[in-house]
TrEMBL record:
Superkingdom of this protein's organism: Bacteria
Span of domain YbaK/aminoacyl-tRNA synthetase-associated: 66-172
Protein name: YbaK/aminoacyl-tRNA synthetase-associated domain-containing protein
GO molecular function annotations of the record: aminoacyl-tRNA deacylase activity
InterPro entries: YbaK/aa-tRNA-synt-asso_dom_sf (IPR036754), YbaK/aa-tRNA-synth-assoc-dom (IPR007214)
Length: 185
């Protein structure tokens, strides 16, 4: 199979390589629902040494810069209670944590979750967190620019490998809410 975006040696429909994914991501692919069939989610094998965006696009194709998205975990606090959300924005932008995210969570204060919290809560590796397979009940805030793309490059749950997913499918994930301007330049 040829990857729909980028220049990858290995591209496989995600349902055919569940053993390459961490448990929560594999479970989400296994029980996939939505208007986009699960076999349109493509797993591409990548070297973890090139996981960071700038190095990644140099190695796998500069055209990926405009189609890659970062998934970050945000913690919102209000009255001693902490709630979590995942935010998905283009890698060329930053999450508007203190504006759009804080308001959406109804939090007094919002910040990026510490690495050990983000990985512990999601069951995914830092640098590979993906919107597929997030904990039940978590809001997934998706920037409208991500949802509009034909295909988006996101983490696979590990630093090795990425998923290529239609933007429409990301907007249909459990807990997803598409927000204009979630990512700021």
């Amino acid at each position: 199979m040829r990857a729909p975006i980028g220049e990858f040696d290995t591209a496989v429909p995600a349902p055919e390589c569940l053993d390459e994914l961490v448990a929560p991501v594999a479970d989400a692919v296994r029980h996939w629902r939505g208007s986009v069939p699960a076999d349109r989610i493509v797993y591409v094998d990548t070297d973890p040494r090139w996981a960071d965006t700038a190095v990644f696009v140099e190695h796998y194709g500069r055209d990926l810069l405009g189609t890659s998205a970062n998934c970050v975990v945000v913690a919102g606090k209000r009255g001693g209670e902490t709630s979590f959300a995942a935010c998905l924005v283009l890698s060329t932008t930053r999450v508007d944590v203190n504006g759009a995210v804080r308001r959406r969570l109804g939090a007094r204060k919002a910040s990026f979750a510490p690495m050990d919290t983000a990985t512990g809560e999601t069951g995914m590796e830092y640098g590979g967190i993906t919107p597929v397979g997030l904990p039940d009940g978590w809001p997934l805030l998706v920037d409208a620019a991500v949802a509009d793309l034909p295909y988006v490059l996101v983490g696979s749950g590990r630093r090795r490998g990425k998923l290529l997913i239609p933007g429409k499918a990301l907007a249909e994930l459990p807990g997803a809410e598409v927000i204009e301007g979630l990512g700021a330049a």
